[in-house]
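Entry 14. Ran structure prediction on the chain below.
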Amino acid sequence: MLPFAALLAAGAAAGFAGGLFGIGGGFVVVPALMLILPLLGTAPEQLTHVAVGTSLATIIFTSLRAVRSHALRGAVDVSVLKSWAPWVVGGTVAGAWIADLVSSTTLALIFGVGVLAFAVHFLSPRVHDRQLASAMPGGITRAGLAGGLGLLSSLLGIGGGTITTMTMTLCGTSIHRAIGTASGMGAIIAIPGSIGFMVIGMDEVGLPWGSLGYVNLPAALAVIITSVAVAPLGVALAHRLSPALLRRVFGIYLIFVGATMIFNS
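Output, structure tokens:
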């Protein structure tokens, strides 16, 4: 009963963060699952992989719910989502393949270090106030950025909101529109990502009951129930906060999550 209640709470926090910051909720779900999954019988050597795979599955629903709320406010750039999607999907599949080659500890360290690196953008005025371009990149640059976005997001079990928001703000997009668009990137990443983690974990032992590969279906369902319900609350708050305050809150949040994952690893 306690693990289920904890999963519901994690889902609520993930949904709120997803709506507020334009992320899929992975930065909340993965650390929470790292603490809860051992109670469900997950072997230590499978812990991070199951946390990442399950997180990706939950992001599908959180992302769709959040992007709908942002779209109703006119804060989603659909053209960016369409033009980036093919490259993002390719990178996501590659990320799942790489995850199959590394240990649980290595995957946890990748998550923590990556999150701390992202926090710099939102906490350093010299970084987040810069504008490198007046429009989103195209051609080879777009293919490289989008592919890298999918690959890294798949490894971390996130919806790619942080990288998408960072890229769009550096290209002159307002923080609110960047967050709204980033919320839609989650489903593009999470669908192939979760399928990939199901496949690579299919023959593994030490997985908790109800697992399909590295995706634990009961845990995913518990998180989805509350995350989908709470996501619109985060969206509403995001459109009331000032851009500067939103960046600071986001940056502090990322530092906490990154340090927690490194410590747990």
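The radius of gyration is 17 Å. Will compare against last week's run tomorrow.
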